[in-house]
């Protein structure tokens, strides 16, 4: 009797898992994983030779730190049933996260719970790594490790819970298809806060701060673009039409934004730069992320065409105010993410995704306030969380910045005891 | 003996080397250098931020030869390196007290 019952139960579980969906999310998980090393290349190429390894490590080490934390407690805080703000401890050490399908906020997913956890893990990894671009060339590696660990638990997991988790505050109220708010707004605003708290790099007038390896930046941007198909189209969590729709909007937004950025540069600085193209494409990918599965390809073109003006403008403001968000994380991810969140409320179309809603252009303005509330909450948590973590780091490490001598010598030698490029051999 | 130091545009190296070869001069030391002269720097833009490059990439050729060859070598380099635009470079000529070939211990003109 018992064995028959078990067999029946297994059959039931099997039936709720869809092989095609599972295959696509497995691939997507690997695609999103690649984005973090790609981000490292994108960032490291923009900095100076003496810091190339430290910047690569700021991305790579997130693969370890956040993965372990996510499996231990981060996933539970983000997705387990809890209150509106943070998940409980039901999934501590992945307890109960098995091969059967998960029902999340009433929706029966068709992929194994373990796979959903792993897919979300990749998002959790890249988000704190994004912040590193704002503070490159000056942060103690030890302090950075503690920063991303605390940030992942205090900022990422709660915001992910509110937007996507079981019983989250904004579930069914605000739209964030693949992490415009959860990933890009949180990291972008935390990046701005951390850059302001840590202050500028101590540069000499004669320092050559041009990107040391633009081909590396372009390689990183290309791989980020590639991985973003997993990020956005994988967020459909199915392998059907919605995934295809998200993939197309993602690609179109990136393509348009890269092109518009270099056209903008052609007008403003008379040359279309490679760095500008890479930056524009990434900004386009950021902007489409929250709406990827809710808007049409034509809307994606508009979203991609607008974001270069926003991010380029913000970089111009940064240069004017002279704060040192070194690699423009706030301009690209913070502001690109803000635009994406607003654009999603403007362009959302239920014909694309019946699980979404109709936006302003479809005559429904009732979602605007909730979306803005969700965005505002994410911004608040990102900034307050970063200030709190920075204060803790100051107490533990005395200074979060390396000494001026270490900064001058470069972080590769002083933090890791090695050199990225050895000219003698 | 004299040392002829020529600062030239990197893209003129092949012409200069070929011309010197025709003159029978095959020994030289070439170094990548950066410097500033009459040719002002240029500006680049990275994400819209202007960056002025003051020190420009040049090559430095060092040739040691007999005093009798100074004019022909200098003319040869000048002709081959000239574009007519600002930034073609300069040639410095200095006396050399002695030359030593490490392998044989030869000294003076024999060692050049």
The number of distinct β-strands of chain B equals 6
- Strand/helix succession of chain A: HHHEEHHHHHHHHHHH
The helical percent of chain A reads 55-70%
Number of helices of chain A: 14
Name of the top-level CATH class of chain A: Mainly Alpha
Radius of gyration of chain A: 21 Å
Q: Terminal Cα separation of chain B, in Å?
A: 9 Å
Q: What is the C-level CATH assignment of chain B? A: Alpha Beta
List the helices and strands of chain B in order: EHEEEEHE
- Placed side by side, the strands forming the largest sheet of chain A appear as 1-2
Q: How much helix, percentage-wise, in residues of chain B?
A: 10-25%
Report the average pLDDT across residues of chain A: 95
If you had to describe this structure to a student in words, what would you say it looks like?
The complex is a heterodimer of chains A (425) and B (112). Chain A is 66% helix and 2% strand. Chain A contains 14 helices and 2 strands; from the N terminus they run αααββααααααααααα. In chain A, α4 (113-131) runs parallel beside α6 (180-198) and α5 (141-164) runs antiparallel to α6 (180-198). The longest helix of chain A has 30 residues, at 368-397. The radius of gyration of chain A is 21 Å and the shape is globular. Mean pLDDT of chain A is 95; it is low at 1-6. With 112 residues, chain B is of the alpha+beta class. Chain B has one domain (2-111): Alpha-Beta Plaits, CATH 3.30.70.120. Chain B is built from 2 helices and 6 strands. In chain B, β3 and β4 (49-53) form a beta hairpin. The longest helix of chain B is centred in the C-terminal third of the chain and has 12 residues, at 70-81. Chain B is elongated and about 60 Å long. The chains are: A mainly alpha (425), B alpha+beta (112). Chain A binds chain B through residues 209-211, 265, 268-269, 271, 273, 275-276, 279, 312, 315-316, 319, 328, and chain B through 44-51.
């Amino acid at each position: 009797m018992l064995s028959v019952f078990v067999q029946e139960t297994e059959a039931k579980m099997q039936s709720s898992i869809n092989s095609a969906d599972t295959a696509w999310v497995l691939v997507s998980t690997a695609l999103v994983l690649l984005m973090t090393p790609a981000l490292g290349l994108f960032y490291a190429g923009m900095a100076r030779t003496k810091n190339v390894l430290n910047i690569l490590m700021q991305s790579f080490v997130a693969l370890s730190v956040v993965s372990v934390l996510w499996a231990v407690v981060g996933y539970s805080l983000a997705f387990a049933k809890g209150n509106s703000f943070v998940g409980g401890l039901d999934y501590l050490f992945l307890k109960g996260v098995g091969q059967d399908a998960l029902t999340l906020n009433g929706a029966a997913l068709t992929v194994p719970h373990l796979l959903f956890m792993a897919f979300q893990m990749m998002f959790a990894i890249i988000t704190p790594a994004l912040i590193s671009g704002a503070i490159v060339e000056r942060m103690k590696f030890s302090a950075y490790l503690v920063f991303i660990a605390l940030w992942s638990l205090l900022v990422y997991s709660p915001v992910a819970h509110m937007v996507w988790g079981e019983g989250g505050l904004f579930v069914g109220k605000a739209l964030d298809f693949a992490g415009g708010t959860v990933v890009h707004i949180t990291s972008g605003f935390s990046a701005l806060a951390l850059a302001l708290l840590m202050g500028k790099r101590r540069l000499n007038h004669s320092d050559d701060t041009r990107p040391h390896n633009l081909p590396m930046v372009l390689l990183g941007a290309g791989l980020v673009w590639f991985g973003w198909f997993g990020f956005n189209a994988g967020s459909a969590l199915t392998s059907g039409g919605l995934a295809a729709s998200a993939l197309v909007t993602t690609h179109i937004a990136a393509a348009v934004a890269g092109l518009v950025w270099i056209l903008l540069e052609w007008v403003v600085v008379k040359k279309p730069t490679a760095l500008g193209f890479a930056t524009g494409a990434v900004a386009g990918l950021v902007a489409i992320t929250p709406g990827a599965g809710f808007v049409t390809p034509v809307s994606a073109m508009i979203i991609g065409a607008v974001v270069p003006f926003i991010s380029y403008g913000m970089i111009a403001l940064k240069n004017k105010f002279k704060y040192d968000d070194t690699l423009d994380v706030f301009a690209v991810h913070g502001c690109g993410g803000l635009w994406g969140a607003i654009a999603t409320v403007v362009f959302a179309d239920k014909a694309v995704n019946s699980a979404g809603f109709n936006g302003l252009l479809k005559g429904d303005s009732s979602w605007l306030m909730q979306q803005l509330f969700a965005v505002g909450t994410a911004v608040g948590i990102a900034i307050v969380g970063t200030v709190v973590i920075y204060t803790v780091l100051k107490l533990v490490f005395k200074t979060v910045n390396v000494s001026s001598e270490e900064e001058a010598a470069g972080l590769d030698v002083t933090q890791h005891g090695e050199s990225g490029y050895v000219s003698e051999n | 003996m004299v040392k002829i130091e020529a600062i030239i545009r990197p893209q003129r190296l092949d012409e200069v080397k070929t011309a010197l070869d025709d003159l029978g001069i095959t020994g030289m030391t070439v170094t990548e250098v950066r410097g500033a002269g009459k040719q002002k720097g240029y500006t680049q833009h990275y994400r819209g931020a202007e960056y002025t490059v003051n020190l420009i990439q040049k090559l430095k050729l060092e040739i040691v030869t007999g005093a009798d060859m100074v004019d022909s070598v200098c003319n040869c380099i000048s002709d081959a390196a000239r574009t007519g635009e600002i930034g073609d470079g300069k040639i410095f000529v200095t006396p050399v007290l002695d030359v030593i070939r490490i392998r044989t211990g030869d000294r003076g003109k024999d060692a050049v």
